[in-house]
Design a protein that fits this description.
The complex is a heterodimer of chains A (110) and B (111). Chain A is an all-beta fold and 110 residues long. In chain A, strands 2, 4, 5, 6, 9, 10 and 11 form a seven-stranded mixed sheet that branches. In chain A, strands 1-3-8-7 form a four-stranded antiparallel sheet, with no helix packed on it. Chain A has no helices and eleven strands. In chain A, a hairpin with a 2-residue loop joins strand 9 and strand 10. Chain B has strands at 4-5, 10-14, 19-25, 32-38, 45-51, 56-59, 62-67, 72-77, 86-93, 100-101, 105-110. The chains are: A mainly beta (110), B mainly beta (111).
Chain lengths: 110, 111
């Protein structure tokens, strides 16, 4: 998946539990993104990071936090998971003119 | 407010015929448009793009057309093949690194 790895691939949480989705790129690109994909909603941007140490909210940031401690890694944290956060989560890195996506994390919140 | 719209959730086309996927946008500041293809259980992969200074871009069987006055773009696949069966997302960007995606169109190519 174009040099973007995501862990875990699948996760089931109970309401109120917390977890961190990990994303790493094997290139030295500045911009990284977190999206969620839901049926009939397309891909919606949760957070993005233009460079190491900087993060900005996207379209649907509520209930999430992110961390970009270094250029390679961009993590997404759910502090208190809710059923509405059941989704498939994709991390992406940016090249000029296109984005490369990881394979996704399928998260179910019961 | 959906800035990028794909009004057809699904499309079914016979193998060998042309597939036409449509996308409309509302933000006149968008100047770059992309199409992504997504198979089940995989991340989206880049397919083709077009800058607003062009009205057509072609790459093998895939052609994207842009009509700026109508704020409309389309992806033509000809001839369609069964391996083209996937969900197709259009996306747009302005003067930032952020992409705004449409809701996707599921294309099924049958023999």
């Amino acid at each position: 998946n174009a040099g973007v790895t995501q862990t875990p691939k699948f996760q089931v949480l109970k309401t109120g539990q917390s977890m961190t989705l990990q994303c790493a790129q094997d290139m030295n690109h500045n911009s990284m993104y977190w999206y969620r994909q839901d049926p009939g909603m397309g891909l919606r941007l949760i957070y993005y990071s233009a460079s190491e140490g900087t993060t900005d909210k996207g379209e649907v940031p509520n209930g999430y936090n992110v961390s970009r401690l270094n250029k390679r890694e961009f993590s997404l944290r759910l502090e208190s998971a809710a059923p509405s956060q059941t989704s498939v989560y994709f991390c992406a890195r940016n090249l000029p003119d296109e984005q490369f996506f990881g394979p996704g994390t399928r998260l179910t919140v019961l | 407010d959906q800035q990028v719209k794909q009004n057809s959730p699904s499309l079914s086309v016979q193998e060998g015929r042309i597939s036409i996927l449509n996308c409309d946008y509302t933000n006149s500041m968008f100047d770059y448009f992309l199409w992504y293809k997504k198979y089940p259980a995989e991340g989206p992969t880049f397919l083709i793009s077009i800058s607003s200074i062009k009205d057509k871009n072609e790459d093998g069987r895939f052609t994207v057309f842009l009509n700026k006055s109508a704020k409309h773009l389309s992806l033509h696949i000809v001839p369609s093949q069964p391996g083209d069966s996937a969900v197709y997302f259009c996306a747009a960007s302005g003067n930032t690194d952020k992409l705004i995606f449409g809701t996707g169109t599921r294309l099924q190519v049958f023999p």
